[in-house]
Each structure stands twice: as C-alpha cells, then as structure tokens.
Amino acid sequence: MRVLVISDIHANLDALEAVLAAAPPHDTVWNLGDSVGYGASPNEVIEAIRALGVVFVRGNHDRACCGLLPLDDFNPIASRAAQWTQETLTPEHTTWLQALAHGPLSPNGPTVSVMHGSPADEDEYLISMRDAWGPLQTVEAQFNFFGHTHIQGGFFIDGGVLFKLAPAYKTRNGAEICEIKLKKNGRYLINPGSVGQPRDNDWRAACALYDEDRNTISFLRIPYDVRAAQIKIIRAGLPDRLAYRLREGR
C-alpha cells in the first residue's frame, strides 16, 4: 500500500491543489490535522479533502475554528484568523470539523499510528531530539506520523540510539523528492511537513509518501502559486503577516 500523508494545510487551497496534482500514485490519504486556520479558503479546502475519502485526525486549529477550543492561548494573529474562519465556515463544515477524531488512530493495523501532535498529547510539539526521546520509548507502533510543527522530517530510534530524520534537497524552487529506506527494527516519528504553511525555511508545499511494501518514506517539496494564496489572504482582510510568511517558509 502507498499512502500520501498530508498535514497542516491551513486553508491554503493553492498549495493543496499543487500537492494533489504532483503527488506520486497512491492508494489512500492520511490527513494529520489543521486543515483550516490562517489561510483564506477554509470551505474550499474542506470540500477538497473530504472528496479524497481520507483518514483524518483533528488539529488544534481545527478545534479552534469550530468552537471546540478557546482562543485564549493563541497569539493575536492566530486568534484573529481563527475568529475569521469561524465566521466564514458553512454550518456543514463546522459540524464536520467538530466530529473529527482525536488522535492517535491506527489506520493500517498496530504497526502504524497517526496523530497531530504527539502520541501522548495532540497539542504537544515534537521539535527537538529531546522532545522525541520520551515518546519513542513508549509508543507501541513502529511508524508514527505526526504534524503540528510544520517542519518536515522526524526522528527514529534504532538499537537504543536516537537519530534525526532530515530530507536533503538540492534546490529551493523546483519539485523534489527524497526517498529514505526505513530500518527494519527502527521505531519512527515522521512528519510530512506542512502543505500550506511550512516553517522549515522552505516555502514549497510539503508532504510525504509512505510505501508499506517497499518500506520507504519519500519526502516531497512541491512549488505552488504563492502569490495567488497571498492575494486571497489580503483580500479576505486577514493579517498581512499570514501572507508574507508563505514566501519566507517560516
């Protein structure tokens, strides 16, 4: 089975469409949350991802934008965007967001787990090797896919030694793919990166392809029409910073 793993679309329809158009052949899609928030096309993105028939887990912005999470802990820009999204979503899409599952889920048997934050807490950020050490000691699944940080890559432990999983790319503008062979006895935390708002200093939309039969993970970076996404944000009256950061990749 080949799985397209996506996360953190953040209502960026232009980035999502580019990912779906350029993604390698796959059998199914796993969505790790935060489909809305920040961007200007929440209804359009929800329509697109629902049509895929994917596995979903909820993210913190999904919860905030449908009224399940107070906005007090969000910074002013994120809070303003979430409030705008609440006012923009159709009732049907609000109800759909409210029904999203709390991760982790096991979409393909006990060897795989999908979540938004970490195995223990859907809102926890796994950014550093220190962050990853504890979860990798306790997770039962071998392959654990997470989002939330908007940073493509991850971590794995093999023979008691912790390693960082970091794709290597040659350019900053073209479409690229980096395939990594997964170790038979390794235990992994894998982040496909953010489709709609990368924060790893690479503006290109990010996703990953998990090939169960070949035991590989392929990280992808896909260029898209950033200017079109930026114009939508400005025209919607959302904070300018949300538009500028798309080109910065941070």
Notable characteristics:
250 residues; alpha/beta; Purple Acid Phosphatase, chain A, domain 2; 6-stranded mixed sheet; 5-stranded mixed sheet; 8 helices; 11 strands
Structure explained in plain terms:
With 250 residues, the chain is α/β, with parallel strands linked by helices. The protein has a single domain (2-248), classed as Metallo-dependent phosphatases (Purple Acid Phosphatase, chain A, domain 2). The chain is built from eight helices and eleven strands. The strands form two sheets. It has a six-stranded mixed beta sheet with strand order 3-2-1-10-11-8. It has a five-stranded mixed beta sheet with strand order 4-5-9-6-7, covered by helices on one side. Helix 7 packs antiparallel against helix 8. The radius of gyration is 17 Å and the shape is globular. The model has no long low-confidence stretch (mean pLDDT 95).
Helix/strand layout:
Blueprint: E1 2-6, H1 13-22, E2 28-31, H2 42-50, E3 55-56, H3 60-65, H4 76-88, H5 91-98, E4 112-114, H6 129-138, E5 143-145, E6 153-158, E7 161-165, E8 176-181, E9 187-191, E10 205-211, E11 216-222, H7 226-235, H8 240-248
Parallel strand pairs: 1-2, 2-3, 4-5, 5-9
Antiparallel strand pairs: 1-10, 6-7, 6-9, 8-11, 10-11
Superfamily at the CATH H level?
A: Metallo-dependent phosphatases
Order of helices and strands: EHEHEHHHEHEEEEEEEHH
Average predicted confidence as pLDDT: 95
What's the architecture in CATH terms? Answer: 4-Layer Sandwich
Count of individual beta strands: 11
Number of domains: 1
- Might you state the CATH topology name? Purple Acid Phosphatase, chain A, domain 2
The largest sheet is: 6 strands, mixed
- Share of residues in helices: 25-40%
Which of globular, elongated, flat, extended, rod-shaped describes the shape? globular
Total of helices: 8
Lateral arrangement of strands in the main beta sheet: 3-2-1-10-11-8
Strand content: 15-25%
CATH top-level class = Alpha Beta
Unreliably modeled segments: none
Distance between the termini: 33 Å
Rg, nearest Å = 17 Å
Secondary structural class? alpha/beta
